[in-house]
Amino acid sequence: MQPSPRTVLALIALGFTQLVSAQNFPAKPLRMIIGFPAGGPIDIVARLMSPKLGEALGQQVIVDNRGGANGLIGGEAVAKAAPDGYTMMLISTGTATISPHIYPKMPYDAQRDLVCVTLVTQTGELLVVHPSLPVKTVKEMIALAKARPGQISIASTGSGGLPHLALELFKQQANVNMLHVPFNGAAPAVSNAVGGQVQGVIADLPVLQPHIQSGRLRALALAAPKRSPLFPDVPTMIEQGLPKVEAVNWYGIQVPAKTPPDVIAKLNDAFNKTLNDPALRQTLVGRGAEPIPSTPAEFAAFVKAEYEKWGPIAKASGAKVD
User: Is the dihedral of CA 17, 20, 23, 24 positive or negative?
Assistant: First the structure.
């Protein structure tokens, strides 16, 4: 059946409108949705980056926190937004590649409803404890956990996130029983660890850095392939005999599916300029977040590979949504 002339004209008009829209983009402020509360590591990166990104785009970039369900509330908001480039999400490893494997019901299809713009940064997961806990190494932590099964409380940024999975991997490989205490985001998790309401926390480097440097928290081990230049004296989990406890978080930008390719290209170009700015790079590295801009295709391939990598690990770890 051939489309009617009216339908053909409507499609031509729609294509012309999208072309004009892409050429004029952006003509108003943009929103960068964060799926976690303010004060966490992904929020820190967004707020450090948004002023310079706004300069590159010629429009203000507003950071919009939509915390809950390990980023899925924010993800749903972006998935259902108009595909015009004005609403984007700074996603993390857990939201994009782990949650789909452990949540019984996702509010959107992470592979179908969002498309990739660029990688932004990466950072390792770090296990830290309150200074009152009498441990200074992973070996001492394991010994204490075995002496007090189920009594050592370790916070995470929420059920189903990468920190939670890193903790489950730690418990599994060290053969210890520790109490997982999930919070709605890194900021409250770290705050409770600093206050001693929980005995430790595992989280991304940017949110932990000031508390380690001030002595309010003690770093035990980094769940990454190599030590962080920010804390060169803190050994990795691998160095301390736990080779399978490796968890490196990454942040990246996604937008609603059907966003015009020209708009995605403009966003990608602006992010690349922003992340290659020497002053911003130095600031991000100083907070433990390494800038790693990419093309949309590179990021899409990376997300697919990460999804396939973390699926079996998530299921084998026993991590479940509380």
Answer: negative
Confidence tier at 20 by pLDDT (50, 70, 90):
very low
* Planar angle of CA 93, 97, 100, nearest 5 degrees: 135
What's the pTM? 0.86
Structure tokens at 74: 């924010």
Q: In 47-113, at which residue ranges do the beta strands (DSSP E only) sit?
A: 61-65, 87-92
DSSP-assigned beta bridge partners for residue 125:
204, 223
pLDDT score recorded for residue 198: 98
End-to-end alpha carbon distance in the chain: 52
Q: Is the pLDDT of residue 163 over 70?
A: yes
Give the pairing of strands 87-92 and 290-291: unpaired
Domains, the chain = 5-122+249-317 (3.40.190.150), 124-223 (3.40.190.10)
Q: Quick one: which of 26, 203, 278, 82 has its CA closest to 212?
A: 203
Contact 22, 263 (CB under 8 A): yes
Give the list of residues 6+ apart from residue 207 with CB closer than 8 angstroms, or none: 39, 40, 41, 44, 186, 187, 190
Tell me the C-alpha distance between 289 and 214, whole Å: 19
